């Protein structure tokens, strides 16, 4: 634990739907290749109806659709997750930091991608988990005993949500496992240090009440940029008007000039257009402008998300009779 700021660690220690929205696994033969636009349309339908469309469910559970080779986004950042859920691996001077764990039955894909990049299990020092939905923490029970030098981090409400959602899935065709033990409990503003890198915790409730986002530096050559992985930006788990209000406030906060975020490393790459940029990232030359360094596009996405949230707020208020 000498990799993390001791003082901060002592203080800490003292984008998708919950599993309940998805029916049982389907045969991969049923799945079809979906464009980014189609995936987004289907997720919007899920958010409105609280039920996954058949085509979306088939795509999510199709190993052929979800298996993706790792790719390098920045000098110090690799994507080692699956097609619909990112797991960002950030290299520091004292090991690696992962953001989110993906889920079964695809955790083996993440483990294989770590090996492909050359990331040894013992070199992973932190795993930052964004919130308690199965697609972001479903790999915790596999990775915790495997990554023996890693501490796993989530907010208090995030941990509690994960335990709740996993418990609700028990005994159903949608069951997923969650180790019922908290590791590191983070709070808003905490700065987690690993080697020369700092990861700032931003509690951004809305997608779920326990959602957190992580802000950190990414590097390209001799330049550094402020990046964020936003824990969740879907409206599929909304429980009422107050949660939508919290969502709007969180998205406004993420766009503040004081944060100066220029890079949007999304938890769900289809949600930000990142999925369509993967071929360009794989062939990126040092002289090329970096397609992910785009604060204007990031702010525009936040604006559109809040426009959708404002419309959803009206619906929730109407349902509540307000």
How are the SSEs ordered, and which strands pair?
Blueprint: H1 6-13, H2 36-49, H3 54-60, H4 63-66, E1 71-74, E2 77-79, E3 88-92, E4 95-99, H5 107-117, E5 124-128, H6 134-137, H7 140-146, E6 151-155, H8 156-169, E7 184-186, E8 191-194, E9 197-203, E10 212-220, E11 223-229, H9 241-254, E12 263-264, H10 269-272, H11 274-282, H12 295-320
Parallel strand pairs: 4-5, 5-6, 6-7, 11-12
Antiparallel strand pairs: 1-2, 2-3, 3-4, 8-9, 9-10, 10-11
Largest sheet: 7 strands, mixed
Q: Quickly count the helices.
A: 12
Assigned CATH architecture: 4-Layer Sandwich
| Residue windows where pLDDT falls under 50 for at least 5 positions | 1-31
Main attributes of the structure:
single chain; 322 residues; alpha/beta; 7-stranded mixed beta sheet; 5-stranded mixed beta sheet; 12 helices
Write up this protein.
The protein is of the alpha/beta class. It has one domain: Ribonuclease Z/Hydroxyacylglutathione hydrolase-like (Metallo-beta-lactamase, Chain A, 4-Layer Sandwich), CATH 3.60.15. 38% of the residues lie in helices and 18% in strands. The protein has twelve helices and twelve strands. It has a seven-stranded mixed beta sheet. Strand 4, helix 5 and strand 5 form a beta-alpha-beta unit. The longest helix has 26 residues. The termini are far apart. The N terminus is likely disordered.
């Amino acid at each position: 634990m000498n990799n993390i700021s001791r003082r901060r660690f002592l203080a800490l220690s003292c984008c998708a739907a919950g599993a309940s929205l998805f029916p049982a696994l389907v045969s991969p033969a049923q799945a079809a290749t979906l464009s980014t636009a189609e995936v987004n349309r289907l997720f919007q339908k899920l958010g409105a109806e609280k039920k996954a469309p058949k085509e979306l469910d088939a795509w999510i559970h199709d190993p052929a659709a979800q298996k993706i080779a790792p790719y390098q986004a920045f000098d110090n950042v690799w994507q080692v997750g699956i097609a619909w859920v990112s797991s960002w691996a950030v290299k520091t001077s004292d090991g690696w930091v992962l953001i989110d764990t993906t889920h079964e039955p695809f955790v083996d894909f993440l483990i294989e991608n770590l090996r492909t990049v050359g990331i040894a299990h013992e070199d992973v020092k932190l795993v930052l988990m964004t919130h308690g939905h199965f697609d972001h923490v479903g790999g915790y029970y596999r990775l915790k005993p495997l990554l023996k030098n890693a501490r796993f981090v989530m907010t208090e409400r995030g941990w509690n949500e994960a335990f709740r959602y996993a418990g609700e899935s028990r005994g159903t065709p949608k069951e997923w496992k969650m180790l019922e033990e908290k590791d590191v409990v983070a709070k808003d503003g905490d700065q987690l240090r690993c080697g020369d890198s700092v990861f700032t915790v931003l509690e951004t409730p809305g997608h779920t009440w326990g959602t957190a986002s992580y802000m950190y530096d990414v590097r390209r050559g001799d330049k550094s940029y402020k990046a964020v992985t936003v824990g969740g930006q879907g409206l599929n788990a909304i429980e009422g008007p107050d949660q939508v209000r919290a969502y709007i406030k969180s998205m406004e906060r993420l766009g503040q000039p004081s944060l100066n975020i220029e890079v949007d490393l999304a938890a769900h790459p289809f949600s930000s257009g990142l999925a369509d940029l993967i071929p360009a990232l794989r062939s990126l030359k040092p002289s090329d402008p970096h397609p992910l360094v785009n604060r204007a596009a990031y702010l525009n996405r936040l604006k559109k998300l809040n426009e959708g949230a404002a419309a959803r707020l009206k619906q929730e208020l109407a349902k509540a009779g307000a």
